[in-house]
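pinging the channel bc i need a second pair of eyes. not urgent but kinda urgent?? the chain im working w is below, pasted from the shared doc
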Amino acid sequence: METSSEIRAVTDIFVGPGLQIIQGVALLPDEFRSPDFLQANLIHLSMPGIINLKYPNDSGLELSEGEYEPGRVVLKPKAIRAQKLSAGMLFLSSTRITGSPLSEFSSQPGFVSDFLDTGADSVLVNFWSGGAESDEGFITDFYRTLQASGDIAASLHESRLRYLRKNRLDGLYDWAGYQLYIR
């Protein structure tokens, strides 16, 4: 299986011992219970995800087709809440939103809160991806800045500014959908 350009951009920056890449068209829920996933400091998920603001438990990450069942397997928030993560940052790069919150007081999308509540220090989400992978140039710039500084919020801020300077009014959807949530 060929590695996606988004994943190549991430792995080209973060090389060395201890790098574990879990990728494929056949990802199943058991890979989200593996020690490699649970103990990772950086998790970058480029699979399609849906955050349902009205019914948060209907949110999920689209995995593979089930071995004995037709259709896609969806990793639901309940499965995430059953885990204990060690991640300093979890990146959801291909996420779309459905529904409207039941209350004006909702401050975080439910699925994002689930990752934060299970131990991730921060969650970076690309909400305007439309189900596609994130912009490779933006991702590469963000991760290079993160590697140099170690500061997630500052790296996102600097990457946005550089993107704006370079592209002016073009590409609003390439950078504006990236939202950072911190525990």
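so The CA atoms of residues 12 and 140 lie 9 Å apart. and The first helix runs from residue 5 to 13. — does that match what u expected or am i reading it wrong
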